[in-house]
Amino acid sequence: MGRVVVRCAEGHLFSTGAFPMQNLGPGRLGPGRLLRCPRCGRLRSAVPVDLGALSGEEIARAWRWDADALA
Ligand SMILES: [Zn+2]
């Protein structure tokens, strides 16, 4: 099960292994899922992010914020 980079409603990028990738595909990135954002510390609606739309630095930063580590 791969991990995905998601963006919370506040715009924070973080990663999680708890997102159901089987529901995702090209052009099918919504709706979000309620996850605890490690940067807000609150439950937020988070949506998966297309890695192609992010810079390498943004992706690296998102991997360091692990939603599951706080669960
Ligand atoms: Zn957040």
From TrEMBL:
It comes from the Bacteria. This is Uncharacterized protein. It comes from Wenjunlia vitaminophila (Streptomyces vitaminophilus).
